[in-house]
Amino acid sequence: LAVVVADNPSTLIRHASDAAGVCREIVMKTACTIQGRRYVKCEGWMAIATAHGCIASSRDVKVVEGGWTAIGEIRRISDGVLLSQAEGYVGKDEKKWGSCPEYASRAMAQTRAISRACRAAFAHVVIMIDGGLSTTPAEESMTRPKIAKIKTGMIMDRLELLEEDMQGRNLRVG
Question: In this structure, which long-range contacts are made by residues 2-7, counting pairs with CB atoms below 8 Å and at least 24 apart in sequence?
Answer without folding.
Answer: 2/53, 2/78, 3/53, 3/76, 3/78, 3/79, 4/52, 4/53
